[in-house]
Design a protein that fits this description.
93 residues, 4 helices, 86% helix, mainly alpha
């Protein structure tokens, strides 16, 4: 659920970036790129867990369980980077 909300917020920031000047896009793209890379870790862990559940694939389940420790902190960091990108779009950061 958190990943889906982050994806929607990141998409919203991308849409808002279209109206900016090219010189202002750099800061937004840096923050948004960092947020998307952190979000990628969460997505890979979710895919591995889903594959392990559907196919009863033990190696995927083991890897997904080992990755679980980083999901919550990286999702929070991704949200912070997305918020910083939104602030950069608004000209406040």
């Amino acid at each position: 659920m958190l990943g889906m909300m982050l994806g929607l917020c990141q998409g919203m920031v991308i849409v808002m970036t279209v109206e900016l000047k090219p010189s202002e896009v750099r800061a937004v793209s840096d923050w948004l790129g960092a947020g998307l890379m952190l979000h990628l870790y969460v997505a890979v862990q979710n895919l591995l867990a889903s594959y392990a559940f559907v196919r009863l694939h033990r190696p995927s389940a083991v890897i997904a369980q080992r990755m679980y420790w980083g999901v919550k902190p990286l999702a929070v960091l991704s949200a912070i980077c997305t918020a910083a990108a939104w602030l950069a779009v608004q000209g406040l950061f």
